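Most newcomers find our protein records easier to grasp once they have seen one. Sequence and backbone structure share a record, each on its own labelled line. To make this concrete, we reproduce a full record directly below:
***
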Amino acid sequence: MNAVAHPDARPDLHRPGVGAVLVSTWRVGTPERQRAAVEAVRTAWESREWPDLGLLSYSVLIGTDGDTLLHYSQWTEQQAYDDFVRTYRDDRNAEIDAAVPGIERVELRRYGPIHRSTARRATATGELPGVVVVAEADFGGAGAGRREEWVDAVLTALDEDAATRPGSGGIGAHFHLTVEGDRVLNYAEWESERAHEEWSADGARLSEAWKRVHHHPGLVGGRVRRYAPALSLSAGA
């Protein structure tokens, strides 16, 4: 069976059977090259049979910075990805690189399935976020449980926001923990880039709950990037 492409779609974050999530970042340089790289990914995958090795879905998001792409793939287990790399990855990447030379593959991180998830408001079935905000928090020398405690602190702050800043445009937040034990990824869905920008600007007057998030023990750094859903691939029927 071949891959089926769903343009402008996002992954099903609550898909059953997910045991591992792989997240990687590419730099391509310009908005035109971003779009060309997404199309190259689509072509390379649609022209081949779906690798039946525990891959459940593969999604690509375009950075609003005009430079980056985020790749988010769901697997039954970590070993399934390793099997894919040995057997299927190189020829797909070679075709993509031929179509869009000079792609910089910046980083690939291994995560477990969603650790915690919250919906800030109900959405219509099938509604897509206008933007996905990916916030990464890095921990160094943090004791056991620090990342989980940080996620709890973020959720507490979001609950406070829901009471004090309703209608801010946030849809949901979904947290992954790295297998390596040093990072948390928050895959947050927002109505639009502007809604997140306005919320962030208002956050300059940080509440006590958000101060606890930003000064959490063991937290050594982080970054926030915004993406638009571009492509989601899954196995055909």
